[in-house]
Specification:
Mean pLDDT of chain A: 90
Oligomer: homodimer
Distance between the termini of chain A: 83 Å
CATH class of the largest domain in chain A: Alpha Beta
Strand order of the largest sheet of chain A: 1-6-3-5-4-7
Number of helices of chain A: 18
Largest sheet of chain A: 6 strands, mixed, barrel
Number of strands of chain A: 19
Shape of chain A: globular
Strand content of chain A: 15-25%
Helix content of chain A: 25-40%
Structural class of chain A: alpha/beta
CATH topology of the largest domain in chain A: Pyrimidine Nucleoside Phosphorylase, Chain A, domain 2
CATH architecture of the largest domain in chain A: 3-Layer(aba) Sandwich
Number of domains of chain A: 3
Radius of gyration of chain A: 25 Å
Chain lengths: ~500, ~500
């Protein structure tokens, strides 16, 4: 510490506290230090910290004992990173954060005002600058939920999100992408589709999200197979080499506000249709895509529960995409049960490898759905005539070309790993015989999340049955995996109260 | 520390960390401790802590260095208090917090479902139990904002809030209370009204809130004059002695969820009509009132901006009150400018003393409005015939009986103090001559808040002019007070960008 600090100095010296508060930046100062007194700070206030060249808004925690010296301001890891990793002892000035002016637009929205382009931009820019506290982010997410964003507002938010981050550019005229609206556990088609499409010479630089409320996003699953946190330059190198990549979108600063919004949506188990469309389309535009295939699974316990809602969502997706200059094709698919056997990053990755390697044990539903989506993309990219995409996709898979392409992509991203299911497992058996009649996707997803997915990549579920299967009493229905005993117990607790995860109906004789 | 802790123990030892996180309970544990590993904890997760006899949900912070030993769980002040102030080293078990089931009702509300009595009770009970994180509380507050609670929902929330706390009972048939919907800075009539009414033998055990988004609530103002944090027994003693009290509602556990909701509303600068009515009526019912007078100031920059909205609010207040068995009378008053000179706890208290002491310098508008409200209550309580309440109120004030009654109440609450305006002040002068044509109540309130009110009780504004006053260039308009130089500077900063706090219009000749 700099011992020359006089009591009258209006700054504090930064130290790294070694405290993980996730993405929320936090700063700790003594309640009786000169800055706290001069500024009249209260606990949990939002304060602006600035050094000679960086600026950040963080949550203030007041320390009331002498574990922290009076002349220090101790930063959580998130705060330290976002201030550019300042050296120990760097001078910093702390002030009350200015009221976030764009929050008045969020409040206005609750009273029926709309987001025009200027308001959308102000909100997204303030979120991007880290000016929104978690409480304020939660109010924004909640204000948008329940279909309260109309088409123009969705387009305005989409444009603001694109403009707040990097935008990739590729030389090709056709740059393919795909997206699944989700809500269906497992359903990990993307790595297979990308491999098939890229093996046919089309460009598909795929960036994916982490899970919002599901047990795994494509980025979470791919992370069990290779590195996904590619910087922009590394991503370009991978795409140059292989015509494709399978990267995490957050690490290349595409639509960077999205991850901040997603974190709150996850905590609330809530996402809005308009915000969902803005999130999807902004990521695609920022990734430089020209043609996008969007899969909307529909089922009673999927995210989209009726054909009617699927058509409404398709409409909003297509209109927003068109406004942003994107070509979009939408597939409405069966969302009544998971696709594939595994739910959770490592277990899904195992399914993906089996399909790509033409393993006889590979889940056929995942194989079929991947071929269907790859076929559509091959046709959109003009690698196949309309109607002959499926044949080409299947040939690419059977010949091993897709698997080789997948290996090339993973090698270029830093090497191919073997996914590791969690060491703790527990099998659930049928209590009576009958026919598998119903999967509660939401309960399955919740169960896998409680077991630790996606943060624990080996956690999740392996399904042993499909809709329509006949089972006897005592037959295995699914196995629960976890990386920690506590998490396994926690998931089993949930199962105690929710027996209707998979329903077996006795056959009428 | 207990050195017998084996690595296999499934508990940690509690220590008090000396960290003020306001009302948010936080627990710090090492990221590499056995409990964090066994449970698979992530930073910022909600965790349940239980000791042998207490239970609490807190936010988890992971410590990544050795400032904290592996076998300890360090509690923030709020967590420590809510766990019943456990002794150093007490054993505690930490687990993932169960998902808060009632959040599904909050999500449902966003999609058009309604709160019935069971749902309202589930939400309020979970909030009361401390199960809602700040993010979840923010979603609840936002979901209710924008007039989204209908009458039945408002009644359901009101009943749930009453049932979650204590309910006071008084022997009298008539127990009077009053409330002002707010939004008007200053307007501190309550202490004067209570003194006049109680001096005439009526029972008025008044509990008040702290400020929501305003620079002071009645409890904040009264706190500069006497003790307001009375326990229930002390409050009863004061009321027995004097027929009245002027206490903070939060300290007697009346509608305890209200303060938790208010904290979030304040952070968002947002409150909903339904939640406002639930808050007001639940407090009155819980306080044991039978007859309540409600003042709704209306003005372009008051909380209620039009007669139409005032009538809608009156309707909701009266219907909800009736459902809860309360008699309510509503006064719609002029909210175009502050009432009284002072804005902020100490400055408002000074006005109150001047009126009660028949000081010649006392603000006449505050005096008149207090007499009007006291008159209505004297008539509601049958101490005066209809039409003669005003005469009785004025006599009570002029004779000194009201002041003596106020002194008695303060003495019974622990003594009468002199309010102290902040030591830092700055006078704002008219830039040109003319007539005072407009007060922006919101800007005035914001300015007083930025200067530190209500947390700094001496902070605020003293007004030197009223609507219609003629002023010359250079005449003093108002003086800003603060307790810290930083806060004064911060408020003056705001003034730089918002010159239209008080508008002077030049007269046409």
């Amino acid at each position: 510490m700099n011992s020359s600090t006089s009591p009258a100095a209006d700054y504090l010296h930064l130290v790294r506290m070694g405290i993980d508060t996730h993405q929320q930046p936090v700063v700790f100062i003594r309640s009786d230090c000169h800055v706290a007194i001069a500024e009249g700070f209260n606990a949990n206030a939002q304060v602006e910290i600035h050094t000679t060249d960086q600026r950040l808004v963080a949550q203030l925690v007041l320390v009331t004992n002498d574990r922290l010296p009076c002349e220090q301001a101790a930063l959580s890891e998130a705060a330290w990173r976002r201030l550019g990793c300042p050296p120990e002892g760097e001078k910093a000035w702390l002030h009350h954060a200015h009221p976030v002016e764009s929050m008045s637009y969020v409040r206005g929205k609750l009273y029926g005002e709309r987001f025009d382009q200027q308001r959308a931009r102000a909100i997204i820019n303030d979120i991007h600058a880290g000016l929104y506290s978690d409480i304020q982010l939660s109010a924004y997410v909640t204000a948008c939920a329940g279909d309260r964003l109309d088409t123009d507002e969705t387009i305005a938010i989409t444009r603001a999100m694109v403009d707040s981050g990097l935008r990739l550019e590729w030389d090709n005229d056709v740059v393919l992408d795909k997206h699944c609206v989700g809500g269906l556990p497992a359903n990990r088609t993307t790595p297979i589709v990308v491999a098939i499409v890229a093996a046919n010479g089309l460009l598909m630089p795929k960036t994916s999200s982490r899970a919002i409320t599901s047990p795994a996003g494509t980025a979470d699953t791919m992370e069990t197979l290779t590195h996904v946190q590619l910087g922009f330059e590394q991503m370009q190198q991978v795409v140059e080499k292989t015509g494709a990549c399978l990267a995490w979108g957050g690490s290349v600063s595409l639509s960077p506000t999205d991850d901040m919004i997603i974190r709150i949506e996850r905590a609330l188990d809530l996402d809005s249709e308009g915000q969902l469309v803005a999130s999807v389309i902004s990521k695609k535009v920022a990734a430089g895509a020209t043609h996008v295939l969007i899969d909307i699974p529909v089922g009673p316990t999927a995210k989209v529960r009726s054909e009617e809602k699927a058509h409404k969502l398709r409409q909003l997706l297509e209109t927003t995409a068109a406004a942003m200059g994107l070509q979009v094709r939408t597939v409405i698919s069966d969302g009544s049960q998971p696709i594939g056997r595994g739910i959770g990053p490592a277990l899904e990755a195992r399914d993906v490898l089996q399909v790509l390697q033409n393993d006889l044990h590979a889940p056929q539903d995942l194989r079929q759905k991947s071929l269907q989506l790859a076929a559509a993309l091959l046709e959109m990219g003009a690698a196949a005539e309309p109607g002959s995409g499926h044949q080409l996709a299947e040939r690419t898979l059977l010949s091993g070309a897709a698997w080789q392409q997948f290996e090339r992509i993973c090698q270029a991203q830093g090497g191919l790993k073997q996914p590791q299911p969690g060491a703790f497992s527990h099998c659930i058996y049928a209590s009576h015989g009958g026919v598998v009649a119903y999967f509660n996707n939401r309960f399955l997803a919740r169960l896998a999340s409680l077991a630790g997915a996606p943060n624990a990549p080996g956690a999740g579920i392996e399904l042993h049955v499909r809709l329509g299967d006949e089972v006897r009493a005592g037959a295995p229905l699914f196995t629960l995996y976890a990386q920690a005993a506590g998490e396994l117990a926690y998931a089993l607790d949930f199962l105690d109260g929710h027996t209707d995860v998979i329903r077996i109906e006795e056959e009428l004789v």
